[in-house]
Design brief:
This protein has 275 residues and is an alpha/beta fold. The protein has ten helices and eight strands. Helices cover 40% and strands 17% of the residues.
């Protein structure tokens, strides 16, 4: 299986023309391998076949790098799930800091195990929904130091969460883990949310049928020159692009997909003409 994973990822990376190092390819392979193993125990993705995982998840996520810069900044991946596109983009762009929002505690634990196993730095998993993160930032009385975004350890430890024992078997570990311990306190949640609001250079959202109702909340995460990347169907992309709160680029068709596209947008300002 390791050889098959390596060959599948090699095809994805070379097909997209991405200049990844062997170390980065190894990290992608670790993510891939853990996904296959954990998916036997918890429902991380409905896609089961390795070939489909390579194209539907890894290729689709990494295709974003053909459209946006890999410059240093802050990535916020909303509803990160099994780590797509957030973890794949973080691996390919190590200079990015990343915050992965995933309200499901089991999925969040998986993300932390991938981070720990890959030795990734400057990435944090938060067990929050987008709406909760924005609400916490709004009501927080704390004035954040915007130069001091919390940095996760290489194990990907998040607020109030204990990582798996370093030498444990992930599938065995899941059966005895108390996922209720992963919930941060309300005060900590508000402080963390305030630190990311208005700072993201890139916000990603995938696997949401209609993101239009979420745009106002997503906009609050973006820095003035930040970009929003939506992974969605072509019909939803057309409907979303008709909204004037963002300047939208033309939808970019995703390779090996009949109808899925990436729609990029940036905040419209009062002084700029809107579409």
């Amino acid at each position: 299986m390791a050889k098959e994973i390596e060959e599948l990822l090699q095809g994805v990376v070379s097909g997209l023309g991405l200049p990844l190092t062997q170390a980065q390819c190894n990290q992608l392979a670790t993510h891939f391998s853990l996904l296959l193993r954990w998916n036997q125990k918890i429902n991380l993705t409905a896609v089961r076949r390795p070939q489909q995982i390579a194209t539907r998840h890894f290729e689709e996520s990494l295709f974003l790098l053909k459209l946006v810069s890999c410059a240093p900044g802050l990535l916020i991946d909303v509803g990160s799930g099994a780590g797509f596109p957030g973890l794949a983009v973080k691996i390919a762009c190590p200079s990015l800091s990343a915050v992965l929002l995933e309200p499901n505690h089991k999925k969040a634990t998986f993300l932390k195990e991938v981070i720990r196993s890959c030795g990734l730095e400057n990435v944090e998993v938060r067990t929050q929904r987008l709406e909760d993160a924005i609400r916490a930032a709004t009501v927080s009385e704390r004035t954040p130091n915007r130069e001091s975004l919390p940095r996760a350890s290489p194990r990907g430890e998040g607020a109030g969460t204990e990582p798996p024992p370093p030498n444990s078997e992930p599938l065995a570990f899941l059966s005895g883990y108390d996922f209720s311990r992963a919930a941060p306190t309300a005060k900590r949640t508000a402080a963390l949310a305030a630190e990311v609001a208005g700072r993201a250079t890139l916000v990603t959202l995938r696997a949401v049928h209609s993101p239009r109702k979420m745009l106002a909340a997503l906009a609050q995460l973006l820095a003035p020159q930040g970009q929003l990347a939506l992974f969605l169907g072509s019909d939803d992309a057309r409907a979303t692009a008709a909204l004037h709160s963002f300047h939208w680029s033309s939808p970019a068709p995703i390779p090996h997909s009949h109808r899925r596209v990436i729609l990029l947008g940036c905040l419209a300002t009062e002084s700029e003409p809107r579409q």
